[in-house]
Specification:
By secondary structure, the protein is mostly helical. The chain is built from 30 helices and six strands. The strands form two sheets. It has a four-stranded antiparallel β-sheet. The chain has a two-stranded antiparallel sheet with strand order 3-4. It starts with a helix and ends with a helix.
Length: 625
Amino acid sequence: MATLEDIGVSALINIIGAFAFLLAFALLRIQPINDRVYFPKWYIDGKRTSPRNRGGVVGKFVNLNIVTYFTFLNWMPQALKMSESEIVKHAGLDSAVFLRIYTLGLKIFGPIAIVALLVLIPVNLSDGTLSFLRRDLVVSDIDKLSISNVRPESSKFFVHISVEYLFTFWACYMLYKEYDRVASMRLNFLASQGRRAEQFTVLVRNVPNVSGRSISDSIETFFQKNHPDHYLCHQAVYDANKFARLVKKRNRLQNWLDYNQLKFERHPDKRPTKKRGCLGLCGGRVDSIDFYKDQIKDLDKKLTLERQKILKDPKSITPAAFVSFNSRWGAAVCAQTTQSKNPTLWLTDWAPEPRDVYWKNLAIPFFSLTVRKLVISLSVFALVFFYMIPIAFVQSLANLEGLEKVAPFLRPLIEWGFVKSFLQGFLPGLTLKLFLHFLPAILMIMSKIEGHVALSVLERRTAAKYYYFMLVNVFLGSIVAGTAFQQLHAFLHESATQIPRNIGVSIPMKATFFITYIMVDGWAGVAGEILRLKPLVIFHLKNIFIVKTDRDLDRAMDPGGVELRETLPSLQLYFLLGIVYMVVTPILLPFILIFFAFAYFVYRHQVSSTLCSLTCFLILNYMIN
């Protein structure tokens, strides 16, 4: 179990790590070679076309202006200058709502932390129950700050109960005010927007195949009969995978043509050439510009033929279509009502925004969707319990005293000063973070297999799965497994009637593990987010091996967005930890407050200057659902 010394070592390591990330970011962002990584929005909006540099060739890569090295922290006040209305215009409504989640955490837990630290901790310290239980349980000095230090049936529990009611009322009141504010922002945003195609469009799936009639004719006949006053038109979905592959090939050829033309413009005295053979490694040499022009011309003919073939072939039409109406009312009625006596046919739902459509899942039959959802539900259930193994391993690292009593031969290694503090104060949180690193990607693959048709829905379903996983494994699993390891000696040598008492006393003391996890994930992890190490490495690798034209350069500097499928469940976990431990172990609250404040500061900067706007209404829908 982590002691005050262990928590201090962990705090020192994470603070140094966070400061190192911030310092590295402050220095890297002013280098001209990294300009497109840290200011992509400025290039997208046209506010900047090239890095500001001095000093000729060297100045293109390294900032030679000494003055900027003394003002490299000026990004900090700049991150707070933009107002909320400006953020909505600049980065979208979801970005503003995303930032409000962090301010909500500060509004809820700020006053709660003050009251808890001034009222509850003195009450907990006034009793000395844990001093008498040291013989039976593994106890540290930090546990004396928790409710476990109050003796059973003490009248002081009335203080905890009263404060719990007060805190709960305050949290509910702040949630009510926040939801009211966000709903108002959403309505104002929708009212300020012009008409959009998806507001009048419904996605129809599982269209039945009628003999002697095409899918397109069936759709038109069905909606003219059932929605005669509002039906406008429809667009069938075609299976055009081969056509899409030809388009990608043409884009690659066009890119090579642009590159060679640019090369010729720079050196007009020498036309570029290439070998005709495989990968340009063999065969006779030809003029590169003429070669790619001929390739594109031939490919355009193939595209025209393939397009005509798709339009004429009835088998190319999938049992799905986008149906448009002449009013929002007609679209809403169609999207929210059953269209057939057979509930497996003519499935309707609001059409996603065109950029939000996940085309691969549009034509999945109803029966296949049902089977997929069942299989994925069982797989997620199995994955949750499979991850209990690494969770138990992490808890074994966090509770070395329990292992010492069962395995005394490990004591010389464990008792070695800094090693013990590192093992208990820093390693458990870091190990858990590493175990969770690849999980969102696995859950996203599962969500795609489920058959969802919108990228925002895929993100939301992945976030929901990840939150259930965090709830069962990280929260409940860590408590159960941690308590078992922590009090292993007591469980093995005491009667079964004492196990509930030992569990009840030990659960508040598990806050020390969550403190170490918050510092690793919420302090150093958030500081690592601002460094954007992954986009930085990928941009420079693409710039070296792939970038040939300005189009390639724009693609290489794609700013992306916040990983919502991972960030939102983590936020919910922090809210859960704060609500659960605000009375039983209030010493946890300052660490959560530091996370909310620091994360708000970091993401405020990311939203204002680096990341793209988030998926439309994903956060609000995720919060409501």
